[in-house]
Amino acid sequence: MKLLVTRRMTQAAESLISARFDATFLPDSPGLSPADAARALMDYDLIMPTLGDGFDKAAFAQQGIRCKLLANFGAGFNHIDIEAARAAGVAVTNTPEVVTNSTADIAMTLLLMTARRAGEGERLVRAGEWEGWQPTQLLGTHVSGKTVGIIGMGRIGKAIARRCHFGFDMRVVFYNRSTVSALDFPAEQIPDLHDMLSQCNFAVVAVPGGAGTRHLIGATELERLGRAGHIVNIARGDVVD
Asked: For site-directed labelling of 219, which of 22, 88, 125, 180 has its Cα 20 to 30 A away?
């Protein structure tokens, strides 16, 4: 079967894929345009797309589509019009469990970097401008014991919250559209996003992408978080205005 992989993979992965399929690997690129996606649907039996590939409604609006499966590389799939794919007879899969821990680790990395101003410090050293330690140099803020607000308490949100609570003794509050129960760590669900943000030192955005969450965080929400607050977005970029 002819398979299109829209990004380069590791050498080991490409070897395994090529042993099973007549595979084409695209060079690194920003992604398929809707026109490119439409052509790919006609030319390949299977496609492994990922973020930035434009499988919108228009891409599926043609007769005689050859492709039967979009095996999405990643948990998020808002770059694929699921209803249009279904109508065209194209199945869509994703990988929801694969990146949970690594994404939570990245969220903690970003939270700690902003709190402790690690990026600024690294740039200072690399530029050869560090002249020795001073008591007031690059003062940041503590993470331990502070309050973190998780926006979206799904798999990744829970993994971030566990790290905050068990690793840094942080108070965890969270906002989620549906009720979350049976957590294995102490956390308080706050039904209003603005009320939650007003209680936070740090906020971590971990919601799915799509029209329902676009610009979920804007001027009003940032005002509630306050000028001393920190926000970390590991969701889609357009969730934050």
From this structure: 180
The set of residues, in sequence order, having a beta carbon less than 8 Å from that of 176 and lying 6+ positions away, is 152, 153, 154, 157, 189
Q: Which residues pair with 73 in a beta bridge?
A: none
Please report the pLDDT score of residue 82 as a whole number: 95
Amino acid at 109: T
Q: Please, what is the Cα angle at 207 between 204 and 208, to 5 degrees?
A: 150
> What are the tens digits of pLDDT across the range 17-65?
999 999 999 988 789 999 999 999 999 999 999 989 999 999 999 999 9
* Burial (0-12, 13-18, 19+ Cβ within 10 Å), 234: buried
Q: Identify each DSSP E strand in 22-135 by its residue range.
A: 22-25, 46-48, 69-71, 91-93
